[in-house]
Amino acid sequence: MLNSNKESVVLDFKHPDGKALFLRLARQADVVVENFAAGVMDRLGLGWEVLSAENPRLVYGSGTGFGLTGPYRDLPAMDLTIQAMSGIMNATGFPDRPPVKAGPAVCDFLGGVHLFGGIMSALLQRERTGQGQRVEVAMLDAAVMALASALGVHMDGEDAHMPPRTGNRHPALAMAPYNVYPTSDGYVAIFTASDRHWDSIVRVLGREDLLTNPDYASTPDRAARMEEIDAMVEAWTRRHGKDDVLAILTKAHVPCAPVRTTREVVNDPHLASREVWAEIDHPRRGKTRVPNSPIRLHGSAPGLVERPAPLLGQDTDRVLSELLGLSASELAALHAAGVIEPAKS
Fold first, then answer.
1. Which is catalytic among the residues 15, 154, 170, 282?
2. CA-CA to 257 of 20 to 30 Å: which in 128, 130, 182, 288?
3. Where are the domains of the chain?
4. What's the CATH fold of domain 16-147+271-336?
5. Is 154 labeled as catalytic in the residue annotation?
6. CA distance 310 to 211
């Protein structure tokens, strides 16, 4: 899914000739991105200091779990361990149940997207100064940023007495209704972020009497009556299908969304109309769908999938021939020495 339009070259960094080939490629490159454990590229002799000396315009992106400094630097990092260390896992789930990991690989992608942003910023800086630079993003640092609402209650010097997990309610229990509610055929997420939303939803529920009740006059007042409000909303949603709830509340200008299954997402008509998916022929999987880039640059050609993800080493010979001018006999010698590898079928 993530390697469409890319090319795959396999080099043995521990072989002197493999390292030399990589250095030759780096001299021509705009960007090198690596996500080895901290210190691995330095031990291979391919760290920032070495590559920047070879190519002062190079932007060198390092994606790590915990960063290049600090006491956690050498801890092993995977999405699961970063979810645990960042507080995301402790904030996910219900207060009477153990912590739960988020379903998607949120930390992997938060780290990657922040690294992308840093690299693009460094490229802009290079256009202005002519100098490349190192860009470092730690998954832990990026993941913590997503906890803004939950962290906010601890940032003013007071240790607020908040449950560690609030289920589908607001992370700071500061709004109501703000929850996921059962319907006749699934679930819907509903929240009211303003008095205007509250006014609209009570009219939908047929409870206009609450509009003049001082106990529900403000957001804090309503948050204090969360259980009562949730029960009232749920009694209404249970009588409708999730798409019906979406239609009714959208017409009333109340933010809501049906909880889609992954099967529904893959077949969602909105995503299809925006050409989120591309159908390709993959040499191993056959016909399959993969995502196009979610980044839309208006005025530029769309970032569509033109070729499937390569097999490992699929482009080694062609890339080294085109970029470095290696001859067929030189490539054959490198293959024989185990410096480079052909495609794995």
1. 170
2. 288
3. 16-147+271-336, 181-259
4. Rossmann fold (3.40.50)
5. no
6. 60
